[in-house]
Design a protein that fits this description.
alpha/beta; five-stranded mixed sheet
């Protein structure tokens, strides 16, 4: 029996991507269209994929932070972009009949680890971005 391929996605302008299958671990940061092309080129694998995507639409638009108005507006814009990318990915999966699981970002979700914390939790020493680490943590405990 083929093992399931776990896919983690941290949506945004720079999409975090993580793939775990057997002992292979792939971490990368992809543009929206490169991510769509990756899925389009692997449609035959969909039944063997378990896709987990962070759902920023499940949270408030902007968290209360101790920053100035200009910074809050920039944060709000970034959050809006991430929500838009997530919604487009949800639509892509639904149009193509691809099963996926949404996960609300929380403090307990183990995302937002820096490189040192990530290596300590996973043992992975490969190069990673904050986005690819977030994507990996969506699926790390599901392997």
């Amino acid at each position: 029996m083929k093992s399931k391929m776990l896919i983690g996605i941290d949506p945004g302008v720079k999409n975090g991507f993580a793939k775990l299958s057997d002992s292979l671990i792939e971490l990368s940061t992809l543009s929206f269209w490169k991510l769509i092309n990756w899925f389009d080129s692997r449609k035959s694998f969909f039944p063997d994929m378990r896709i987990h995507i962070e759902d920023p639409t499940a949270n408030r638009p902007v968290f209360n932070r101790n920053v100035g108005k200009g910074s809050m507006l920039k944060i709000a814009q970034n959050v809006g972009e991430n929500k838009c990318m997530a919604k487009l990915l949800f639509q892509y999966f639904e149009i193509n009949g691809i099963e996926y699981h949404r996960h609300r970002p929380t403090k307990k979700s183990m995302t937002k680890l820096n490189a040192v914390q990530f290596e300590k939790v996973t043992g992975l020493k490969q190069r990673s971005s904050e986005h690819s680490r977030d994507a990996c943590m969506l699926i790390w405990h599901r392997r």
